[in-house]
Amino acid sequence: xxxxxxxxxxxxxxxxxxELAFVVLFAVFVLEGAMLLYVAPSELLxxxxxxxxxxxxxxxxxxxxxxxxxVGQFALFLVAQRGGREYLLSRSWFRIDxxxxxxxxxxxxxxxxxVVPASNAMLFTxxxxxxxxxxxxxxxxxFLALSALGTLVFEGALxxxxxxxxxxxx
Length: 170
Prior knowledge:
By secondary structure, the protein is an all-alpha fold. It has nine helices and no strands.
């Protein structure tokens, strides 16, 4: 078993290897996009899906990853937009502290909406501009497009690294 798959929780490995794989993958990416997936690093999800479901399903896996993560991020964006800072910080399921939100608010203030796809395409900042974008009352359509673009770049890069890495090592 490859390293990315071995690090996924056993129940997730089993579900992704089942006939419900694409449905489960969509749900996993919705949770990841909403910053509610704490059982597996987002960097392992597409490579793990490629191992368990098969690289011949690359395009459906990427499509599901982008759609699911964008749906999850949009849900969090709407909560931030409608609920506001105090509401979000008071929720036990929201595990980002105020100092991190303030740091990413500064990024949004400095670079504007284009920082949304940039942050979605980078390790460790993925999704972190969702909340400041909601606080800034960014247009929902614009957020959806920019969020999906950044997610496509991120997940596409992970898939390419996995597929190229597998060919180099074989």
